[in-house]
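General statements about sequence and structure are easier to judge against a single worked case. Part of our work consisted of pairing the sequence of a single chain with a tokenised description of its backbone. The amino acid sequence and the backbone structure tokens for this protein are reproduced below.

***
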Amino acid sequence: MNFDKMTDQEILDIANPLMDNLMDASTVIDHARHVRDFTDRIKKIVTEEHLQKVCKQYQKEKGFFTTREPVAVFKRPESAAIIWKQWFTKAQGEFVAEMLLVNQNGKYLVDHVVVF
């Protein structure tokens, strides 16, 4: 897959549903759904215990995810990094949501994701 030949919108059309699922699954702390579109590499990192700890912490401090707005798409032949502005229900201000999107065996997968 050659991400640098795709438009930003084509990449966002792939990334947004993946990020929607990640955020919805982390809200209800559903590990199986949260990691379903992860590469094997990141699945090894995001164990069920790790997800529970991270989700409970951000929900306590920041609340839940609300709106998200795309800021930039960085393209390389083998991957795309997508950056969004992210808002929460409790915490004031703008946060950063980031995803690294790859294609493995014809399937789009998340190889890194973070909100800070």
